[in-house]
Design brief:
Oligomer: heterodimer
CATH topology of the largest domain in chain B: Rossmann fold
Distance between the termini of chain A: 36 Å
CATH architecture of the largest domain in chain B: 3-Layer(aba) Sandwich
Strand content of chain A: 25-35%
Largest interface: A-B, 29 and 32 residues
Number of domains of chain B: 2
Structural class of chain B: alpha/beta
Helix content of chain A: 10-25%
Number of helices of chain B: 9
Distance between the termini of chain B: 36 Å
Largest sheet of chain B: 6 strands, parallel
Largest sheet of chain A: 5 strands, antiparallel
Shape of chain B: elongated
Number of strands of chain B: 10
Number of strands of chain A: 5
Radius of gyration of chain A: 14 Å
Structural class of chain A: alpha+beta
Shape of chain A: globular
Order of helices and strands of chain B: HEEHHEEEHEEHEHEHHEH
Helix content of chain B: 25-40%
Strand order of the largest sheet of chain A: 3-2-1-5-4
Order of helices and strands of chain A: HEEEHEE
CATH superfamily of the largest domain in chain B: NAD(P)-binding Rossmann-like Domain
CATH class of the largest domain in chain B: Alpha Beta
Chain lengths: 109, 226
């Protein structure tokens, strides 16, 4: 059977917004190969770098947090980030599983 | 995304509506898509593709475009009969699992707001309660009272409507008696065998949260069974 893929992260984003935090939504929009999380997976990040949810199994979250804080600081509304097969800094940013994902980050404004 | 759009999305989700969020990844514009409702001219030319993603309940970027679509379908309805101790834990587990939970119990002293804060509780007999809601083969029933007066009418309704999951709490002996009663009511073996009784997968625990966990595990497993 089908059930909605929904981890209720937007509800949490809404709570953060109501608490006057600056919130960035980060959403997995495309995947290639064996990526850890399906399209539509999401995490949210505030201006302090607090985050909730996930876009991978912990492989790229730190980079996503940095990018999200970056667009708040630069006052940019959105950005697309692609993560490819892991490179020499795999322990930090690459996807160890060899998959690729595209993450769209956007400010709630 | 605009704050206002986020608010609208939360509202639609609370109302259990079916919709999609469409985003133009080039411009950052996003809006709600609903079947039969007009959309902005930027998105309009992709109507066919959006509809196709929506029908297939898919999330993703439409090929050769910058349009991302994220679909929301109505969560599966799970009806719990019996506002008992196990139900309290079931609801806690189910909260993070994207089911729509409805509790039915005609016994007012069980079905209280204090015991189930913020929950939809129908304080009626199952026959009456089912008149108020739409149920079909996408609905699940968890019968927890092991009182034939309350559970049996709910089980009969679920069998008639071909719920995809029907589980009933009670020992092997209780379940054997239940089977006899259902046979007398005219249900065939195949129908009766579709009831999970005793309910839950075998975890071995005896406490209310452990039993609730075994029930929720069975419910999820049946939901995604091929």
């Amino acid at each position: 059977m089908e059930n909605s893929f929904d981890e209720k992260i937007l509800e949490e984003a809404h709570d953060w917004v109501k608490a006057n935090q600056k919130v960035v939504l980060a959403t997995v929009i495309q995947t290639w190969g064996s990526s850890p999380r399906p399209t539509g997976s999401r995490m949210i990040v505030n201006e302090n770098g607090d985050f909730s949810g996930s876009v991978s199994g912990g492989c790229v979250e730190s980079t996503v947090v940095r990018e999200c804080i970056g667009i708040i600081k630069d006052n940019k509304p959105f950005k697309k980030i692609e993560f490819k097969v892991s490179n020499e800094s795999a322990w930090e940013v690459g996807l160890a599983c060899g998959g690729e994902i595209a993450v769209y980050i956007e400010q709630v404004i | 995304m605009k704050k206002k759009l986020l608010e609208q999305i939360i509202k639609k989700k609370n109302n259990k509506s079916e919709f999609a969020i469409i985003t133009n990844l080039k411009t950052g514009d996003s809006e709600i898509f609903e079947v039969g409702k007009p959309i902005n001219k930027d998105f309009k030319k992709y109507t066919d593709q959006i509809n196709s993603f929506y029908k297939n309940k898919k999330n993703g970027v439409i090929e050769d475009t910058n349009i991302f679509i994220e679909t929301y379908i109505r969560p599966i309805k799970v009806i719990i009969v019996g506002a008992v101790h196990i139900a309290q834990y079931l609801i806690n587990y189910a909260k993070s699992l994207n089911f729509e939970i409805i509790v039915i119990d005609p016994r007012g002293y069980f079905a209280t707001e204090q015991r189930f804060p913020g929950m939809k509780i129908i304080n009626k007999w199952p026959d009456e309660a089912f008149k108020e809601m739409e149920t079909n083969s996408n609905t699940a029933l968890i019968a927890l009272t092991h009182d034939p007066k309350i559970d049996d009418p709910a089980l009969q309704h679920a069998l008639n409507k071909k719920f995809y999951y029907i589980g009933a709490l009670g020992s092997k002996k209780t379940h054997a008696n239940r089977i006899e009663r259902l046979k007398e009511s005219g249900f065939n073996e195949h129908e009766i065998n579709s009831i999970h009784g005793p309910i839950g997968i075998k975890l071995g625990g005896k406490s209310a949260p452990e039993i609730a966990l075994s029930i929720i595990a069975q419910l999820v497993s049946e939901t995604y069974k091929e």
